Amino acid sequence: MNLLAAEATVGDPTGVWGAIAGGAEYFISIFNKGGEVLWSLMGGILPTLVVLLTAVNALVRIIGPEKIEGLGRKAAQPGLIWYPVRYIVLPFVAVFFLTNPMAYTMGRFLPERFKPAFYDAAVSYVHPITGIFPHANPGELFVYLGIAAGITQLGYGLGDLALRYLLIGLVVIFIRGIVTEFITSRMMAKREGAAA
Predict the structure, then answer these.
(1) Confidence band of 135 (pLDDT split at 50, 70, 90)
(2) Residue 94: pLDDT band by 50, 70, 90 thresholds?
(3) What φ, ψ does residue 130 adopt, rounded to 5°?
(4) Which of 133, 137, 122, 128 is nearest to 180 (CA)?
């Protein structure tokens, strides 16, 4: 019998070996899919994020980090007039310039009684800012893009959505900052009362 003329066929493995082979194929398919997503991002949002992050870092250097840090010290002043500075302006500037998670370090210029409220405001703002300024928190971008996909399927523009996210986010962080400051002051007063 001529061995070259004989056709060799190999069937799919069955049993335990079939399960192992199927598991291996599934395992590698996860990474193949991840590679496809990465490749689509390389031609989409990633170049924009890199350029935007570079521009923001250049702007911080032009303005001067000491001036941005000076804003934090100004916001620590007592009085109602400083609430918007502490819980709108400072979190916005921190998230925009320092991005997530470095934005939380801006709280170091505030007295202890304001730090929890600032953190609450800043951490609550890392999502609403991504619609217009995706460099601020690229990790949250997938949430915004998921919502944006539904909005575009309905035929609406994304500019209005991004602007509404940004503005409503500012209102929400202002309210959260004030409420958290109130709760913190009550808790600190109770702790000081218990220690006395």
Answers:
(1) confident
(2) confident
(3) -70, -20
(4) 122
Alpha carbon 59 to its chain's center = 20
How much is the pLDDT for 8? 57
Count of H-run helices and E-run strands, the chain: 8, 0
CB 75 within 8 Å of CB 109: yes
- Asked if 45 and 134 touch (Cβ cutoff 8 Å), the reply is yes
Closest of 189, 187, 195, 181 to residue 79, by C-alpha? 181
Task: At 149, list the tokens.
Answer: 């996909």
Mean pLDDT on 158-178: 92
> Quick one: tokens of 193?
């009362």
> Under a CB-based contact definition with an 8 Å cutoff, are residues 118 and 99 in contact?
no
Each residue's pLDDT tens digit, 101-125: 778 888 877 888 899 999 999 999 9
Closest CA to 119 of 63, 165, 181: 181
**pTM score, two decimals?**
0.64
| Cβ pair 125, 91 in contact under 8 A | yes
Q: What is the pLDDT of residue 195?
A: 67
Before 138, cis peptide (omega within 30)?
no
Q: How distant is the alpha carbon of residue 80 from its chain centre?
A: 29
136: CB partners within 8 A, 6+ apart: 95, 96, 99, 100, 103, 126, 129, 130
